[in-house]
Design goal:
The protein has 162 residues and is mainly α. It has seven helices and no strands. The longest helix is centred in the last third of the chain and has 31 residues, at 101-131.
Amino acid sequence: MLQTHFMEINARLEKLYKVEATGKQKFFSKETTGLGEFINDLGRGCYVCNLIDESFTRYIDTFFKLFSKEERVRTMVTASKGVCLPHLETIVSAAPKKLPAANLRLFYETIFTAQAAYMKLIEADLDWFAKKFDYRNQNEPWGGAKDAIERAIKRLCGQKED
């Protein structure tokens, strides 16, 4: 299957390249041969990436179905630290399309309460991290602030938090 795919790609590239190289385009036309567009589309057509995207979309659908129907899922979200900001954007954008109106407000309240609590904890830890470099606080315990910068970056960028 992969070999056939490459044969088709190579045949198409060769054809488009010949047209591009010989300049056999319509005179006074701004139309291109499509070589650049074809190459660009190849990058968007990654089989593995497409499978991952499709699976992720199904995970989002499943999450919202379970959130609507299962109290234990809502409890888990309430008890969680929220999600990274890239995934927060994903679920907040998808929520109006995936949830019935009756559950939408509950979802927003639940996710934003969990999200805000952990974001405020990180903010406080960042504040204490900075204050630890003041000579007056050098002998004070670190508390949870020692890894505050790492946790903040992971939360902002979507990396897995320990």
